[in-house]
Amino acid sequence: MSLDILRNSKVIICLGTGGVGKTTTAAAFGYMAAKAGRHVCVVTIDPARRLADAMGITELSNDPKKIDTSPELDLWAVMLDPNSTFDELVQKFANTPEQIETIFHNPIYQNLTENLSGTQEYMAMEKLHELSRDPRFDMLVVDTPPARNAIEFLNAPKRLTGFLENRVFRLLISPSPSVFRPVTLATRLLLRTISKVVGTQVVSDAVEFFQAFEGMEEGFKNRAAEVQGLLARDSTSFVLVTGTHKDTIDEALFFASRLEEFDLDVDLVVSNKVTPEFGGMPESELAKVPKEILENLRYLVKLRSAELEQLSRLSAIISSGHHILVPLLAHDVGSLSEIEEIGEVLVDSRSRYVNSVSL
């Protein structure tokens, strides 16, 4: 199944709670796709620098960076910078240089990316749209924030469209006294009341900010609709990454249920850091094993059994061949060679590391 995803997908979105190896999985899928001849960009919209650490590079920015690999691999990576992405978007849709300057110097805009709920998710949507049209790439692998934040990313196109179509927003960016005089008067009274609480300057800055966007909202709305369509395409695959503990399984099941609300399906489940399979030794050989080692062996067998029992709860959201178990490795992942090691686990069912199962 994972090989099919690498061959047929144009976008792979990796989802999961924090600490389950989601970033490593995204990097490994990207590496193996590039190894198979795809032109790949791995995108992280998680503000942490885990992707750079996993790939063994010093830094990533808002612009795609070619990963220094062998010449036959075309692998790039980028880390979302909401501020830069928003600036680029304003420059793209503004009608005049004066409009750009007005927006950039507005105090509301200057604090927007740090304080407005959902801004990072909106800008992640925009970055995905931008990269999906970049002729350098024929595949994107997206590393999302922890699961519940990733829901906001999936919901961002719909929320942004709804906001831009809101009547109050429309009045603020293009008030028309002849048509909306009663409403405009009511709006002014409301703003006057708010001014008494937050101050006249704050309200003035807010109105100026919204009015500065006049003529730009259609571009935002169209792009949001295009991203919504991109997420729904057959060529977009959703990979749910889990650990083995109860809380990560609970989170995975919750996220799968939320995906259903968006009419999206989980295409593959990857469970990381599973205790490797031990045992299988005949009793005659076990009798020769030192007691301390035998106790450890029995503990690991029980631990694996308990993990598989937890993972069996995922059977409701997977089908045969759609669940890959990646055993716990003896080392952390912090280089491309180690990313490749994980990648081999994901794509080769005969690998000594892999168990591809239907639980």
What features would you describe in this structure?
The chain has 359 residues and is α/β, with parallel strands linked by helices. It has a domain at 2-86 and 121-160 and 234-357: 3-Layer(aba) Sandwich (Rossmann fold), CATH 3.40.50. 55% of the residues lie in helices and 13% in strands. The protein has 17 helices and 9 strands. It has helices at residues 2-8, 22-35, 50-55, 82-93, 97-104, 107-110, 112-115, 119-132, 147-164, 167-173, 177-198, 200-212, 217-232, 246-261, 283-286, 291-311, 336-347; strands spanning 11-15, 39-44, 65-66, 74-79, 139-143, 236-242, 268-274, 323-327, 355-357. The chain has a 9-stranded mixed sheet, with helices on both faces. Strand 6, helix 14 (246-261) and strand 7 (268-274) form a beta-alpha-beta unit.
Mean pLDDT: 75
CATH level 1 name of the domain at 2-86 and 121-160 and 234-357 = Alpha Beta
Query: What is the terminal separation in angstroms?
Result: 15 Å
Low-confidence stretches: 175-183, 194-199, 350-359
Relevant CATH superfamily of the domain at 2-86 and 121-160 and 234-357: P-loop containing nucleotide triphosphate hydrolases
Which CATH architecture of the domain at 2-86 and 121-160 and 234-357 would you pick? 3-Layer(aba) Sandwich
Helical stretch tally: 17
Percent of residues in helices: 55-70%
Envelope shape:
elongated
**Lateral arrangement of strands in the main beta sheet:** 3-4-2-5-1-6-7-8-9
CATH topology of the domain at 2-86 and 121-160 and 234-357: Rossmann fold
Helix and strand composition category:
alpha/beta
Proportion of beta-strand residues: 5-15%
Rg (CA only)? 25 Å
The largest pleated sheet is described as: 9 strands, mixed
From N to C, what is the helix and strand string?
Answer: HEHEHEEHHHHHEHHHHHEHEHHEHE
